[in-house]
Amino acid sequence: MSGANPIVEALEKSSLRDDLPAFRVGDSVDVHYRIREGEKERVQVFSGVVIKRRRAGARSTFTVRKVSFNVGVERMFPLHSPRIDKIQIQSQGVVRRSRLFYLRELRGKAARIKDVKDR
Fold this sequence. Notes:
- It is a single chain.
- Helix content is 8%, strand content 41%.
- By secondary structure, the protein is mainly β.
- The model has no long low-confidence stretch (mean pLDDT 88).
């Protein structure tokens, strides 16, 4: 952000989280997300493959895709949100794209991503 307001930059820098692991597009992750239902709060785990990352400081997001009961489900998460409890990396994928939208058309074994261990 060249030429941005220094007050805005300082505010954004204070809201960044540094306790999250370094993950990339193609990695399989478990996102532990806190959900409020009435006055109760619980943690819901969303497991899937990271198909997109948007790097924009405090406004950074990432999209995770999974297939549940033969229906593709995608969910976007704000990276620096206080609602994210933790992110666990299940496996690291080897991909040559920054956006994996082609996985939306693939089914079954064709939608697999090579693992770092397979190299």
